[in-house]
Amino acid sequence: MSESNLIERAREIRRQLNTELKELQQLGLEIEDYEQRGRYIYFFKSGSRIKSKDVFSSHISDVQEINLYVHIPFCINRCTFCCCFSTGKQPESIVEEYINTLKKEVELLIRTSRFENAAIRYIYFGGGTPTYLSAKQLEDLIGFLKSRLNILPDAGFTCETSPETTVGSAGKERLQALLENGVNRLSMGIQSFDDNILKRIGRKHSAKTAISAYRNSHEAGFTNMNIDLLFGLPEQTLEKWEADLKIATDLNPGWISSYRLRIENPKMHGAFIREADLFPDKETVLLMNIMSIEKLTDSGYQQAQAPHTFLLPSKLQLTPRHYLGEEELGLGVSARSYLDGVRYENFHNLKRYMVSVDKGQLAISFAGKYSRRQQMERETVMMFRGPKGVNRGDFNTRFGLDVDSVLGERLQRLKKAGMITDDGETLRLSNKGLLFAVEVLKQFYSQDAVSRFKNMIYNNESLKGLFLDKKYSRSGEVIANIVKTVAGYAK
Predict the structure, then answer these.
(1) Distance between CA 109 and CA 241 in Å, rounded?
(2) What is the mean pLDDT of residues 257-283?
(3) DSSP states of 57-101
(4) Shortest CA distance to 120 belongs to which of 328, 271, 305, 293?
(5) Contacts of 110 (CB under 8 A, 6+ apart)
(6) 357 backbone dihedrals φ, ψ, rounded to 5°
(7) What sections of 322-402 are H helices per DSSP?
C-alpha cells in the first residue's frame, strides 16, 4: 500500500532538512536529539532567590489586569504520560478540604496590598482534571472566586476537561454548570482516537467516548474548544497519527494542540522505559511533528502557542492570556505565579500545601526575582510562543528599549537560519522555526536558568542514576540526553 500524500510530503521535508541541519549547526544553533525536544528550561527556578514573605513586599507595578490560574490536581486515573502534578482519585473529604484550602489561599492573598486594585482578565482551570469536581463543587468554587476577586465582566475563562467527565447525566450537569458560571472555552484532553493506544497510556475513555464528549460540549453551547493530541506514543505509527489528525480536523475545533510525548517521571514511566521498542524512533517522531504542522496549516489553522498549539484565525481574539506571558496569579498545589518580575511556585505536595495554608501561611516553595534582563528574555520567549509574535512597538512600550538593541545579534542569527520572519514590525517563528521551536527559544534563555536546571539534574542522585542507566537501551539514552544537552549549554 502506498503512503499517503501527507506522509510523503513529511518525508520530503525531512530529506530537505539534512543539508539545512548542518548549516544551522555551523551558525551556532545546536539541534537537540529529536526524542528529547519539548522541555522549556526557562520556567524552572530562575532569578535571584527571595524569601516567601518578601514576594508581595516589593515594588507594586502599574499593571492592574492579571490572569488567574487555578490548579485542580484530582483525576479519575493518573495517566502514564502526564508531567503535571496530579493525585489520582481521592476521598470526597480530601476534595472538599482542598476546595476549602483554595478559598483560604484567596483570603490570604487579598490581604496583601498587591491585590487591592488587581482585576482578573483571564481565568484558567487546569489540572489534573478540573471536571473531576461535581457540578455543585464547580459552581461553589467559581461563585466564591467571583465574590472575593475583581473579575472583569468580559473575562475569558478556560476549563480543562477529560472526555469521561463530560458524558452521561453527570457530565451534562458539569457542562451546564461551567457554561452558566462564565466558562467560555474548554480544553479537552483526548490524546488519541486509537483505542489500543488509549488503553496503553492509561486513559479511561475510548475514541467513541471522546467524540461524544466533544459533541456534547458543543451542543451544550461551547463553541470555543481545544483538543489535545499526543504523538510519539507507544505503538503509534505514521498512519495512526495521520488518522488522529484527520478526525481532529474533521471535528473542526477552534484549537488543536499537538504535543510530543515527554518521558519525565521515572516512577510513572518505568514500564515504558523497559519497553523502549514500543515507542516510535526519533525519525518517526520528527516526521509526526512535520505532519502536524503541515496538516493543521493546510486545514486553516495558525500558530497559537509554539511549538504545539494551533488555532483557527476566527479564534485569535479569544487566545488565553497566559499564552502571552502576562502577569499571572496561581492558586493551588504546584501552581506557579509571575507578578511584578517575581516568579514563585507553591508546594508540589498536597498535604504540605493544605497544612501551610491552614496555618495562615502562603504555601510558597520557591520565589525568585528576575533581573530586568531576565524579564526581557522571558517576554521575548513568551511573545515568540504566542500567536502575535514579538511586536517591536509592544516591546518598546513594555521596556523602553528597542528589541533589536537588546537581542539583535541573536535575532539576526535566527533570521539568517530561516527560523524567524521579520516584516519590519513583528518577528515570528517561520514554519521551520515551529519545527525547531525549542532550539530557537533556547537562544534567549539566561545562563542562570540553564545552570539551575543542570544542578537540579545532577543534585538528584536517584534521577541521575536512572537517567544514565544504560540498561534502559534507547530510552535510557533519550533521557540521559537531557543531562548531556543541558551540561553543554551551561558550560
Answers:
(1) 45
(2) 72
(3) TS---S--EEEEEEEE-B-SS--TT--S---BS--HHHHHHHHHH
(4) 328
(5) 148, 149
(6) -65, -35
(7) 350-358, 372-385, 392-399
In which band, very low, low, confident or very high, does the pLDDT at 34 lie, cut at 50, 70 and 90? very low
CA–CA dist 164, 212 (Å, integer): 10
β-sheet with 426-429: strand ranges across: 390-391, 426-429, 420-422
Query: H helices then E strands: how many in the chain?
Result: 18, 16
The CA distance from 295 to 245, in Å, is 7
With vertex at residue 310, the alpha carbon angle to CA 306 and CA 312, rounded to the nearest 5 degrees, is 145
Most confident region among 24-28, 43-47, 173-177 by mean pLDDT: 173-177
Third-level CATH fold of 48-324 = pyruvate-formate lyase- activating enzyme (3.80.30)
Q: Tell me what pLDDT residue 372 has.
A: 87
Let me know: does 105 contact 148? Beta carbons within 8 Å.
Answer: no
**All residues at 6 or more sequence positions from 3 whose CB lies less than 8 Å from its CB, including other chains:** 11, 238
What residues does each domain of the chain span?
A: 48-324, 449-491
Tally of residues, the chain: 491
Contact status, residue 31 vs residue 316, Cβ threshold 8 Å:
no
Look at residue 141 and tell me whether its pLDDT is greater than 90: yes
- How many other β-carbons are positioned within 10 Å of the β-carbon of residue 479? 23
CA distances from residue 310 to 240, 255, 316, 434, 479 in whole angstroms, order as listed: 20, 6, 10, 11, 28
Which set of grid coordinates corresponds to residue 265? 517521571
Cα separation, 201 vs 99, whole angstroms: 29
| Cα–Cα dist 276/263, whole Å | 11
CA angle (358, 104, 161) in 5-degree steps: 110
User: For 272-316, how does the pLDDT look when each residue is reduced to its tens digit (9 = 90+)?
Assistant: 667 778 888 888 988 999 999 999 999 999 877 776 787 877 666
pLDDT of residue 320: 64
| pLDDT (mean) for 446-456 | 59
> At 365, which amino acid appears?
S
At 461, is the pLDDT very low, low, confident or very high (cuts 50, 70, 90)?
very low
CA-CA-CA-CA torsion sign (331, 320, 428, 40): positive
Return mean pLDDT, the chain. Answer: 81
Nearest one of 416, 439, 420, 436 to 428, comparing CA atoms: 420
Q: Which residues make beta-bridge pairs with 186? A: 159, 225
